[in-house]
Amino acid sequence: MTDTSAAAASTSAKPSVAILDVDLDEHARRIRKQDRIATIFLTVIVGFVLALLAALVIYILAQGLPEVLTPGFLTNSPLDRDNPGISYELFDSFYMLFVTLVISVPISLGAAIFLVEYAPENWVTSAASTAIETLSSLPSIVVGMFGSLFFVVYCGWGVSILSGAMALTMFNIPILVRVIQQALQDVPRVQRDASLAMGLTRWETTRSVLLPAAMPAIVTGIVISAGRVFGEAAALLFTSGAAPARLNFGSLDITSLRNPWNIFRQAETLAVHIYKLRMEPTPGNDAIAWGTAAVLIICVLLFNVGARMLGKHLAKKMTSE
Amino acid sequence: MSDVALMQKHWPHAEGAATKASATTKLPATLEAPATTKAPATTGAHLLSTRDVTVRYDLTKCALQPTSLDFDKGQVTALIGPSGCGKSTFLRCLNLMNREIPRCCVDGQICYHGHNINTKEENLFDLRASIGMVFQQPAPFRKSIRENIIFAPKRHGRISSRSAADELVETSLRQAALWDEVKDKLDYSAWALSGGQQQRLCIARALAMRPDVILFDEPCSALDPVSTFAIEETIRSIAEYGICVVIVTHNMEQATRVSDRTAFFYVGEMVECGMTKQIFGAPKDQRLADYLTGRFG
Predict the structure, then answer these.
(1) Taking the C-alpha atoms of A30, A35, A38 and A41 in order, what is their torsion angle to the nearest 10 degrees?
(2) Which domains does chain A have, with CATH numbers?
(3) pLDDT by residue (tens digit) across B184-236?
(4) Burial (CB count within 10 angstroms: exposed 0-12, middle 13-18, buried 19+), residue B239
(5) pLDDT 10s digits, B59-116
(6) A190, A199, A320 ranked by CB distance to B135: nearest
(7) C-alpha distance from A319 to closest chain B C-alpha (Å)
């Protein structure tokens, strides 16, 4: 018996002999140690990233919150002599965001639907996708310069909310198109097939089946892009201006340059206001700049957190209403 | 109105109903007639017949060898075979769903009511109104249960009033054996139903279009045994109302329970077809015999 098995071992396998030489316990200890080290290393990296974010937010809030909480900061006009606040900038930021979304969301929705549903797979489509990606990597100051030349001067809109919104649209479109495209592609293929198999056209399928199913993801994407656009400064410097209009909230004349709802008036958003304050060495400006920065950070955080909560809430509602 | 009476009102070509001539069915006034029923070229012609249908992906890779099968009214045909053998590909040819896949080429004759539909000029939307399909994953729309069922008939202009819509919803849900479970929840979202209920809703949705043919692509593979049983019952009862059923299944027992005729596919080729008893009892081809005994697949 042993003779034949020894013979078998020698004729068949050197490898089987080699394996028996390894100390399995030592090997197990070594790979477990590697696993532990890798886990610790990755945890440290993530911890570092979180700490960076926390440090940024905490430092800015520490510097700026005292100013924000002084009465009148959020409600006084910046032109107030005794106690200037940021009410006009706050209004302008939100209004600018609103106008930007009104322009960019339909355009992005159309482009994304086309790229996902209708575009044939040829060079034109790839060129269009590449162009959209390139638009997102243009430097913001360059987009601002283009905006000032085209929208402000050539179109004749002057330094205005509309010019600023158009410049911000050029940033927002790539983000939104990517988000909406992803949201539509995440709808299971079988929903599309089921609708087409009942004799519905592609447009009916997109409008009545795919968009409702993708709605939570689309809404989340829009709110997150709003957070990004809310804090943009460089593109707005030359297109919507660095000085607040002297707003008159009681004005009834939409064409007046003091009417808050007039999109052809100049405007100053929070981010631009910070820039301007730091450029002017007037005493007291520093404190206002920090306060503005704190408000900006809080708004952006609210947008991001709110977007995710809204998305989850909408998704839950869809499966249980 | 009792179940049976309701069925006979909406499926007048059912066995035991008044009219046997399918070309001119008298329809109730509240429901518009389905578009297009072309009269068969010769009496005794099959409802759906295919001759030498081949499918190629990317113009070169052949997924289905020339296949010829016939399907008749009121009959359940099962397509069985191991994974990747072309049965789902063939099924998708019957309602021209392969046209939704880019660079997929379907050749051959597919005759529906005696007239070849595999042509460029074929109106896909009218065709798919008479040939319905139920997929492997339950895919109800993100709408209420009622909306799911009347969505397509409304788009095809078949619903003239609210009461017609309600009647259609009730008929379809009864036929799919789902009425008792959801009759109080018709306005609730379809995504709140369980997997088996969602699949039965998809069947009800397909029935609401009052098609001549319903194609099932492995409808029970994602479901638990209780739902599977309910759906098999539904499929048998659908066939009793004169609808031609073609079902793709990888479950051989399901094929024996549900179908009248069976076709066996293997690696893109239709190997053998015949009455279910004969296929399972006395297979002629060796590959089929091996599949049945579990040598592969």
Answers:
(1) -100
(2) 70-320 (1.10.3720.10)
(3) 999 999 999 999 999 999 999 999 999 999 999 999 988 889 889 989 999 99
(4) buried
(5) 788 889 999 999 999 999 999 999 888 899 999 999 999 988 888 899 999 999 989 9
(6) A190
(7) 5
